[in-house]
From TrEMBL:
Tagged with keyword Transmembrane: yes
One Pfam assignment: DUF3526
Protein name: ABC transporter permease subunit
Residue ranges crossing the lipid bilayer per the database entry: 21-40, 150-170, 198-216, 228-253, 260-285, 450-471
Organism encoding this protein: Reichenbachiella carrageenanivorans
Record keywords: Membrane, Transmembrane, Transmembrane helix
Domain of life: Bacteria
Amino acid sequence: MNRQIQTLIRYEWKTFVRNKFQLLLLVITFLFGLYAIYYGQSEINAQRETINAVTALETKEFSQYKGSFTTEMENQTQEQTQDIASRPEYAWYRHGYHAILPPHDYAPLAIGQRDLFRYYYRLTGTSLHYQLFENELANPVNLLTGNFDLSFLLVYLFPLLIIAFCYGLFSSEKESGTLALLQIQAVSIRKIMLVRMAFYFVLITGLAIFISLIGLCSSGNPFTEENMLPAIAWVIGTTLYCAFWFGLLFLIISFKKGSAFNAISAAGCWLLLLIVVPAVLNVIVTVKYPLSSATLAGLTRRTGLENEDDEEESKEVIMEFLAHKPELAGSDSLMKNNMLPKAYAAFTTLKDINSQQEVDHYNDKVAKRNQWTSQFLWLSPAVNMQEILAEITQTDLNTFLDFQNALADFHGKITDFYFTRLFWDRPILLEDYEQLPVFEMSEDLNRGNIIWFGLGKILIAAGLVFLVGFFRINGGIKK
């Protein structure tokens, strides 16, 4: 580092420490960062507590069922427990299995879709669609405003901090009359602006990385195999995103206008990239792929056989169901034992089969919306960055769509387990509890590609705006 650069950095440091307002801004931003980490961890810890509670309930429920096989019946309650444990006509709709999407260690840093979509379901052998679309109540104001997590701070507030620190780097010299003195120095204006910009880049990006490291270390161990790559991607993403905004400010400064022009232009870019572009994309995608939840809401209405005492109606429903499941049709006692439970099991399955087209149509529109919107992420590095942070923390929309697809497979395992015993009139034995259905969800192997490709787009955007500013800033100025 030559002497001139050292002098410039020393001057910038003295200017910075004497500006109490800038120091206050950094302190407030740091405190906001700590609060954002605390808020995110509070939200996710509440979800973890719920997950632990429902898991404990399921463990206790099935322990009671298994215990009923070896316990001598002493009262009516124990007899009822044994009936539910061993008789498939009760078990198919009483045994509940929890399918859970556990949060990633770094989910508190970017809550993403975890407050909007359900992260656990209790599934039985009854209608899958009824259980999927029966929503829990949530505060609509919270859903509308979103969450003040670390990703919000980085994506929305740090650009404002960069604007506040850098919009006057050139114009202040011009307006204070010191620009002429700078022009006669041996160092070019471009070099002076680059050094000053680099000083604040290190300062503000360093603060963003420092807050991120606090969040990463307090939310999980960044040195584990599961967390290391996400932690590295988070730090790289934060650096590139700050670099984009510094590059954009450098481009605005290169026009060599006054402070008012720089401030308004920078604020306009912030509004365009973080408010206008997402809002316009949202309006277009809403018109292009309209979604109506009225049909899905209809699936959550309880329905049943018209007349439970009518055996002919029950037989018709069972026969219609067996046309889809011929492997369950071989029992001699098919139409003799447990007619009503079989009819209801058949009825709920037929209801799912008949409504599958509507559900597929709805899910297809959701997927197309997501796919269409992702094509235009390059329009706004801010939106792109938000999607990347959600991908890193596994709180993105695709994760929840994969979760719902896995639920359908899991429900199929549940119905196969119970319907085989129900329609073949076989009791559930103690050893059958070693073969209970287990929820499984495959890992998204494309996640890494999405993250690195998205970071590449931010890098290109940052490089472009910086290079244009780099070649513009010396125009019209000698040295």
